[in-house]
Amino acid sequence: MRADLEIIQQWVRPGHHILDLGCGDGTLLDFLQRERNATGFGLEINPDHITTCMGRGVRVIEQNLDTQGLDNFDDGMFDIVLMTQALQAVRRPDKVIDEMLRVGREGIVTFPNFAHWRLRWGLALSGRMPESDALPYKWYNTPNIRLCTFKDFEALCRQKGIKIKSRRVVDGQHQNSWLARLWPNLLGEIAIYRITREST
Amino acid sequence: MPDSLPSDSVGLVSPKTIHFDKPLELACGQTLESYDLVVETYGKLNADASNAVLICHALSGHHHAAGYHSLDDRKPGWWDSCIGPGKPIDTNRFFVVSLNNLGGCHGSTGPNSNNPETGKPYGPDFPVVTVADWVASQARLADHLGIQQWAAVVGGSLGGMQALQWSLDYPDRLRHSVVIASTPRLTAQNIAFNEVARQAITSDREFFEGRYYDENLVPKRGLMLARMVGHITYLSDASMGEKFGRELREEAYKFGFDAEFQVESYLRYQGERFSETFDANTYLLMTRALDYFDPAYDFGGDLSKALAPAQCEYLVLSFSTDWRFSPARSEEMVNAMISARKRVSYAEIDAPWGHDAFLIPTPRYTDIFTAYMDRVAREVGA
């Protein structure tokens, strides 16, 4: 099993109502539906992904976060709002995080770390925009328009009074590595954050 | 006419008339003591009767949804693009039931049927039926066919309203409700177009207050006009533009009022064809059923409250250029379903054909519909 799925499923209780922002082909929701008896929806805009979701029994709504937001979801209607590898692709990540924690009690966010040593090294040495397995695009065609580092994200959470309940750092293949745990902002490629506005 | 039947066709089919003796109480307060429903079925009902799919037709539709009545037919049934072996509603897996609704003019009891009390056609005395009445009659049909629960109830436009109504009135009798190019209620503009159509019919001198059968006449011009105005709302500006543009039938303007533009002659032709095959009183009834449909009405306009009893899973589809029942109307429905904690999937399909797009097999529409129905089939072991 992919390490990120393994980590995320530990935070999902049986029967949880879940919203997955940018759910892709529905792999994660399908997994949580089967393993955790979770309910809920994915939001997606890619037509092929939407078709795949429908075929596998993942409830999917065609909805664009950038233009439509989450206005159609009631406050606190989800136990968990997920956003895996999509935060860096929305126009206003700060507003999306606010909305996640409005409609859900808890958010789980994963994104690539722009401060990973290989990206730093690439930029320092070549003077060109870095590319990696997690960020395979050119600067002009990348959907990843809001890249940030773990430190940036944590600073935003602090500024907004959002509590980070857990953080797990993995490498590009979603594998755990002790090095990344030791020095995350330099050695971690992808982080999985569990955030909330609730005090408990 | 096809030289031979296509391999993905349900082939030659024939309708069956089923008589119902148990009186049906209608929303208007009247009761139909007995009635007929004309039905076609495609595919085979499996041993546990779990693979049945009900097709609900739109304003001018009927029971003949797929296949051919004879090799001389010019065209197959109205939804042949979506029903057949290997098609989205796969007749190798599903038992498909398609009927002509009450009040229709294709064989089910309606205004042009004989009123047993008078021995003459009902005409204007046929009660104004509603979407809920149709659903109630369809439930009787399900009983008759030995179907306790539909794998899915599927419909486009007015048919989608029936699929939605089913989920509210008989929550445990369907697993899936597929609502395509539909709306939870008509807008003022929608009702206005219906009113123009009705006025065209009722102001025709040959309408005779709906008793034109007795005069051996048909309000042909009125029905033609009604269809013409309706037809405009089924297409998009872009698709009409592409099909006709400003093309003239002849080379120059004739400075008169005959059909000079291609679009004029197309509309006239469509209207005429329709007026030869459709009944004016049925057209009035169907448009009224559209106007009245509003399941949220009894819940202070709150659709999510109206949806409370529903147990099925929904698939809602809209089309980008549909301005009759626009994507925004479908989204209203989807949002109410989300609010009511129902299971729902939704997609807006990019298609240039306006409201009519639900009848036209575009790749994305076919892919989504196929993927979803494949999952329904797997769920019921079909």
CATH architecture of the largest domain in chain B: 3-Layer(aba) Sandwich
CATH class category name of chain A? Alpha Beta
Order of strands side by side in the largest beta sheet of chain B? 1-4-8-5-9-10-11-12
Largest sheet of chain A: 7 strands, mixed
Structural class of chain B: alpha/beta
Remind me, CATH topology of the largest domain in chain B?
Answer: Rossmann fold
Pfam family, one (chain A): MetW
Organism (chain A): Marinobacter nauticus (Marinobacter hydrocarbonoclasticus)
Protein name (chain A): Methionine biosynthesis protein MetW
Subcellular location (chain B): Cytoplasm
Tell me about this structure.
The complex is a heterodimer of chains A (200) and B (382). Chain A has nine helices and seven strands. Chain A is of the alpha/beta class. Chain A has one domain: Vaccinia Virus protein VP39 (Rossmann fold, 3-Layer(aba) Sandwich), CATH 3.40.50.150. Chain A has a seven-stranded mixed β-sheet, with helices on both faces. In chain A, strand 1, helix 2 (27-36) and strand 2 form a beta-alpha-beta unit. The longest helix of chain A has 11 residues, at 93-103. Chain A starts with a helix and ends with a strand. By secondary structure, chain B is of the alpha/beta class. Chain B folds into two domains: 14-184 and 294-378, 3-Layer(aba) Sandwich (Rossmann fold); 188-286, Orthogonal Bundle (Rna Polymerase Sigma Factor, Chain: A), CATH 1.10.1740. Chain B has helices at 131-145, 158-169, 188-202, 220-234, 237-243, 262-277, 280-292, 303-306, 327-339, 363-379; strands at residues 16-20, 24-25, 31-32, 35-42, 52-56, 83-84, 89-90, 95-99, 150-156, 174-180, 313-319, 343-349. The two termini of chain B are 32 Å apart. The mean pLDDT of chain B is 97. Classes of the chains: A alpha/beta (200), B alpha/beta (382). Chain B: It holds the Pfam family Abhydrolase_1. Chain B: GO terms for molecular function: homoserine O-acetyltransferase activity; homoserine O-succinyltransferase activity. Chain B: Belongs to the AB hydrolase superfamily. MetX family. Chain B: Keywords: Acyltransferase, Amino-acid biosynthesis, Cytoplasm, Methionine biosynthesis, Transferase.
